[in-house]
Amino acid sequence: MLRILVDEDKCIACGKCEEICPKAAKIWKVTDVARILDLRYCHVCTICAMVCPTNCIRIVRPGEEV
Ligand code: SF4
Ligand code: SF4
Question: Which of 18, 45, 56 has most ligand 2 atoms within 8 Å of CB, for mutation?
Fold first, then answer.
């Protein structure tokens, strides 16, 4: 199963992941920290992880070690 892990200690709630994600409304909710709502809509483009200024998003594909 696909997982997207956000290191909550490093997240500064800038909202860039949510801004850039093509399916943001279904996937991301950024309040005090960025949280994932539903990954069924994620097509693993990885741009959220690329734009995150603190490098706190980790995309773990099915079969990869966490
Ligand atoms: S881009 Fe990174 S630091 Fe900014 S809200 Fe998203 S997870 Fe947090
Ligand atoms: S990998 Fe792409 S579709 Fe999935 S959450 Fe990140 S930006 Fe959105």
Answer: 45
* 10 domain-assigned: yes
- For residue 52, the enclosing domain spans 3-60
Q: In this structure, how many other beta carbons lie within 10 angstroms of the beta carbon of residue 26?
A: 14
Domain count, the chain: 1
pTM of the model: 0.94
What sign for the dihedral angle of Cα 21, 45, 39, 61? negative
CA of 54 to the centre of ligand 2 (A): 17
- The CATH number linked to 8 is 3.30.70.20
**Structure confidence by residue, pLDDT tens digits, 10-34:** 999 999 999 999 999 999 999 999 9
